[in-house]
Amino acid sequence: MTLPRTIAAAATLLAVGAPMFTPEPSAAANAADRTSAVSWNACPEYTDEVLAWMGLPAEAVPDVAFTRLKATDQANRLGSLALNPGGPGGSGYLMPLDLSMAPPGVTPIGLELNERYDLIGFDPRGVGYSTSYDCPDAGPGGPPPTGEVTEEHARERYAAVVAANRACSQSNPAFLSQLTTVNVAHDLDRIRAALGEDRMNFLGVSWGTWLGAVYRSEHPRHAGRVWIDSVAPPEFRFDEFVTVRNAAVGRDFTRMAGWLAEHDDEYGFGATTRAVEKSLARLADALEAEPRTFTGIDHVFDGTFVAIAGDQDAPTWAMAARILADLRDATGTEAPQSIKDLFAEPGRGDPPPGAPRQFNETMNQAVFCNEDLGRRDFDSAWAAYRKAVKKYPVTGRLHATTPPCAGWTIPPEPVRLRDSGTPLVLSGHRYETLSPYE
After folding, report:
1. Considering the entire predicted model, what is its pTM?
2. In this structure, which topology does domain 20-133+181-235+415-427 adopt according to CATH?
3. How do the domains of the chain map onto residue ranges?
4. Least enclosed by CB within 10 Å: which of 16, 198, 278, 343?
5. Would you say residue 283 has pLDDT above 90?
6. How confident is the model at residue 141 (pLDDT cuts 50, 70, 90)?
């Protein structure tokens, strides 16, 4: 969970078409070169403009939905630029629209890119308007227990995760086993072929960086300019990934503590970085021992909540600090205003009728677990958790106690990248925690 960020968006400002594309089942890289018919039809969900429907052999599955926002300067057009928001499991269907909006006074990056590029958004297989699947029991049954995490609680959670993953992976193995980054990369290249492009340019963030790297490796003849931002590790091991991420969170928490020390007169957590860290550790321990609840707020405030509040980007430090101070000082069952504001409904409006979810948890689980080469036993995960809590008394609580792929029955398939020599830009952010700079 992250603290809400203010997002101003209106899905009706721009009109985009929605192509639907059915890829062939073959994994061969040259399969995308086959000719396919494309017809354009009305797109009633968001606009009166058109959508494309690309037909391949009737037995081919799954369908993949994609959108195109044509370049505004067609005379100087540079080609198509595919976009991916990460996940895995995130919908990119409206990403051309999302990148084309920004607060007043800010030029959206999408508008600049859209001058000379057709912007391509798509729902990867398993997501949104593309062929998808939801496991009958998508989780281990309820949220983790609040308060102190004991080894007994962690073992119970581990057993629940194993049972849920086993049931999920065995419920539809034929479909779930082909939810991989490599197959999504093949789908992307078939979109390229359907659009008649010699090369597909690509911009991806978070997991989208892994998709971009795999696309560039799998389809060197057709990959154009690739920019991957917030780069994912070249070999996915969840056990190593959470350890690196937790270290990044710990470093950023120290930065936030330094900022709080500079504002001690307002928040009262201490005048030095170390004093703030100790104050927040005491608050986390107190809430771990006796979690708090407030009338009308469907949330239990424990040590993990303090850790989450300490894992924030710099622009939200003031909001997080106000919430932590109010939580510390609160008496009775009436929630402080800052906490009421945090859990208030964002009021973003209703999605179009029949619109799918913007994130598919089953696809997320399948792609990760079909590629995760890390350890999945309880003892290793519990030892790593205890080590993290000792090293990072506040934010170490965010370290996973259970490998999320424990019990997944589909064998992982490692991906070996090859340098295709095509244009590539990699960028990272020193203080990012979701996809650490390392």
Report:
1. 0.85
2. Rossmann fold (3.40.50)
3. 20-133+181-235+415-427, 143-171+237-345+353-414
4. 198
5. yes
6. low
